[in-house]
Design brief:
Elements (H helix, E strand, L loop, with lengths): L14 H20 L3 E2 L5 E3 H9 L3 H6 L1 E4 L5 E4 L4 H9 L10 E10 L11 E10 L4 H18 L4 E7 L3 H15 L8 H9 L26 H16 L4 E3 L13 E7 L8 E7 L3 H4 L7 E7 H10 L12 E5 L5 H13 L4 E3 L6 H10 L4 E5 L1 H6 L1 E6 L4 E6 L3 H10 L3
Parallel strand pairs: 1-5, 7-8, 12-13, 12-14
Antiparallel strand pairs: 2-4, 3-4, 5-6, 6-11, 7-9, 9-10, 10-11, 14-15, 15-16
The chain binds histidyl-adenosine monophosphate (HAM).
């Protein structure tokens, strides 16, 4: 029988990648918390209706990409394709405390979309995100965008381009939708099958189609359909971004794949990602989302960023950290008699905060030391009969290949100081 492989579009993250993953996730947590965002976790499995109503049944995500199945109780359930609808549900049932506004939340975890796997597109992927719920102010739009921007800065990813747009109010978008339909309807026969369908379900998505790109240049612009209020709001957001020293590109053709957006929409692009997959992440304002879920109306804005895509960009810019050494020290006994003593030494060193592996191989000492080198350890701690008798240990600097005998009582300090020095 062939071995059982992972499902298509779903990958294992092996230990060699874990340093880069931890770096990315910890950095996002730190930057989000520095801006006052607190951690939230929502379930991975949700009622399908949450996304049908929240994300919108005419979106690609809901129409074609969700992992949906009927559970044993006969309910339709879905592996979450995104996090915003869940976060809004979680914090608005029960009603939001007046004192807490706005609520600042951050999250990270797995999400699922049944897309065609390719570079930067997986069926299980990881997002880091933030949501700011309960107030509508241009300062908060700018704060959310700035948090994402500072996160990329903290990672050292420099070539990020911020694209911003205003999708206007519900009324603005209805007017714009009519204008788009009027423009595209005479072209219907030349459109791809997806766009023919989108023309009645979700005309804004036509601007995003890679196959029908040739029609986009002459399509009407959302900015010509914005009310004065929406225009002023967008101008205020842009001014706040400029004041923060954040460069943005205003892009009237930027539309987002989810239905709940109004007013500010944005994406972070990176050149290392090709074509339709060029967004490291994106977000926007979703003031109508709570109502779609029959929750008390509350405004909100947030973003989500794709961790796998960020790692591609980080590697392209050479800023992703290399895999960490497996341990700081390897504890080696020579001869049966020292086995208990070396296990005890390992315990003492771990208590002092060191990462220690006890060597259990049956090899000659020189081969043991070579193996130790391969683990990336800085120190070898060796006990044989002589050391046992003298209540000492040999501490070997594995990069400089020097060694010294150290009394057991001073061992932890000696190894700590060796591990702390440059190799
Ligand atoms: P989204 O644009 O659908 O927004 O996804 C955000 C990011 O998740 C994408 O830019 C991409 O980096 C990553 N992503 C999405 N699908 C995949 C995939 N199949 N494979 C790899 N990465 C993927 C949202 O999800 C909204 N909830 C963002 C938001 C938060 N808006 C307001 N608050």
């Amino acid at each position: 029988m062939p071995p059982i492989a992972a499902l298509r579009g779903m990958r294992d993250v092996l230990p060699a990648e874990s340093t880069a993953w931890r770096w990315l996730l910890d950095t996002h947590r730190r930057v989000a918390e520095a801006h006052g965002y607190r951690s939230i976790d929502t379930p991975i499995l949700e009622p399908t209706e949450l996304f049908e109503r929240g994300v919108g049944s005419g979106t690609d995500v809901v129409e074609k990409e969700m992992f949906t199945f009927v559970d044993r109780g006969g309910r339709s359930v879905t592996l979450r394709p995104e996090g915003t609808a869940s976060v809004v549900r979680a914090v608005l049932t029960p009603r939001l405390d007046q004192e807490l506004r706005p609520l600042r939340l951050h999250y990270q975890g797995p999400f699922f979309r049944n897309e065609k796997p390719q570079t930067g597109v997986q069926r299980q992927f990881t997002q880091v995100g933030i949501e700011c719920i309960g107030e509508r102010r241009p300062d908060l739009d700018a704060e959310v965008i700035e948090t994402g921007w500072r996160f990329f800065e903290a990672l050292g990813i420099g070539r990020v381009q911020l694209q911003v747009n205003s999708l206007g109010s519900v009324a603005d978008r209805a007017r714009y939708r009519d204008a788009l339909v009027a423009y595209y309807e005479p072209l219907r026969d030349q459109l791809c099958d997806d766009c023919k369908r989108r023309l009645s379900t979700n005309p804004l998505r036509l601007l995003d189609c890679k196959r029908d790109r040739r029609f986009v240049a002459d399509a009407p612009l959302i900015w010509d359909h914005l009310s004065g209020e929406s225009r002023d709001y967008f101008t205020a957001v842009l001014a706040r971004l400029e004041a923060a020293g954040i460069e943005s590109v205003s892009n009237p053709r930027l539309v987002r794949g989810l239905d709940y957006y109004a007013d500010t929409a944005f994406e972070f692009w990176h050149e290392s990602l090709q074509g339709s997959q060029n967004a490291l992440g994106g977000g926007g304002r979703y003031d109508g989302l709570a109502e779609l879920l029959d929750l008390p109306p509350e405004p909100g804005i947030g973003y989500a960023l794709g961790a796998e895509r960020i790692l591609i960009a980080a590697r392209a810019e050479g800023v992703a950290p290399s895999p960490e050494a497996v341990c700081d020290a390897v504890a080696i006994s020579v001869g049966e008699a020292a086995a208990d003593a070396i296990a005890q030494v390992a315990r003492e060193l771990r208590r002092a905060g060191l990462r220690v592996i006890v060597d259990t191989t049956e090899r000659r000492l020189d081969r043991k030391l070579r193996h130790t080198d391969r683990l990336g350890a800085r120190a070898g701690v060796i006990i044989g009969d002589d050391e046992l008798a003298a209540h000492s240990a040999v501490v070997r600097d594995l990069s400089r290949r020097s060694q010294q005998s150290v009394p057991r009582a001073l061992l932890a300090d000696a190894v700590l100081s060796l591990v702390g020095t440059a190799s």
